[in-house]
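Researcher: Please translate sequence to structure tokens.
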Amino acid sequence: MFEKKISFISSKDSLAKKSLKQLKKKYKNFKPEDADIIIALGGDGTILETFHKFLQERKLIYGMNRGHVGFLMNQYSEESLISRIEQANSTRLYPLKIRTFDVSGNIKECLAFNDVSLIRKTRQIAKISIKINNIEKIKNLLCDGCLISTPAGSTAYNLSLRGPVVPVGAELLALTPISPYRPRRWRGALLPNSVKITLTALETKKRPVRAEADFFEVNDIKKIEVTLDKKNYINLLFDKGHDLEERIINEQFIY
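Model: Translation complete:
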């Protein structure tokens, strides 16, 4: 007998709201605070919002695609939902922990499950230095920006930059330049997820940059420090035979 309490939530999209109404009629629905499992209806943006909203409560999260790409979602179906959840595989996802330092000396912190980027604000190319564990690896990277992504995020913006797709079980982070000009032959790096990555913007008056991470944005950045936060995590459920590991493998053979 299925004993887990389910709470359905959705994006504001009309299709997602319609599906929410139908599922609430078919299955018993609890308030999110009383539920064991959150079922999110929408796209990848919806599931990311759900991660952040319920991160501290350690609830199981199961997404069904009512959006566009839906890479982190399961296929939508109203039928056999309880059976699908009972057989689902759980994947633990850890977020990036980001500290931003702006040019005025203000410090902010945030978490990101997909990626964080340091990217130019104006027509001027950005100039960025890169340190790994406080050791300088690139003194001057002339580029539009630089991206750090988790395995789960490596198939998003990182993939569009021709960055490496990282298996979800790999203890790695992808560091990928955005439109690099000099050095042109540098295409990024795969790094152990135990390292601290520091990106420092140079000549910030002439070349202002901003930081973007999931739903978080800070302007006029001087420096960001990025590590993997292993104290926080979410457990994401995928239908049997369609887990995140398999999707990441398949993504590399789409042409």
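Researcher: Any highlights?
Model: The domain at 6-94+233-251 is CATH 3.40.50.10330 (Rossmann fold).
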